Amino acid sequence: MVTSILHRATGVVLSVGSLLIAAALVALAAGPQAWACVTGLAGSWFGQLVLFGWVWAFAFHLLNGVRHLLQDAGWGYAIAQFIRNSWISVIGSFVLTALVWVLVMFRGGVL
Question: For 14-70, what is each residue's pLDDT tens digit?
Fold first, then answer.
């Protein structure tokens, strides 16, 4: 039940994040001053928190979506497997998010 609710919530977060990406692209097209505003906001603690949350939402939605696809194929319907796979989605999303952020930081930061 929790992973189902999280899947829906992360879908909403990804939709809002997509609008923010579109706004950032509009700012990039608007010129250096508008883009500097975007990079300043994204580089702030709040911007970093939003970016981290969006990456986690993406990772969870991806892994939980794969879990749903496997269940649609008929795998993992036993209660023990269902619970295990749900935990794999949750824990895996944090691992995947950490991996993405470590790689980003080693390559010179977010922006």
Answer: 999 999 999 999 999 999 999 999 999 999 999 999 999 999 999 999 999 999 999
pTM for the predicted model, two decimal places: 0.87
Q: Which domains does the chain have, with CATH numbers?
A: 2-106 (1.20.1300.10)
Q: Which two tokens stand for residue 29?
A: 């097209």
Judged against a pLDDT cut of 80, whether residue 72 lies above it is answered with: yes
For tokens 């295990």, the residue is: 84
- Specify the 3-state DSSP secondary structure of 25: helix
Which residue, chain included where needed, has tokens 């922006």?
A: 111
14 Cβ contact partners less than 8 Å away, ≥ 6 residues apart: 54, 57, 58, 61
5: which 2 tokens?
A: 């609710």
Q: Which distant-in-sequence residues (6+ apart) come within 8 Å of 56 by Cβ?
A: 93, 94, 97
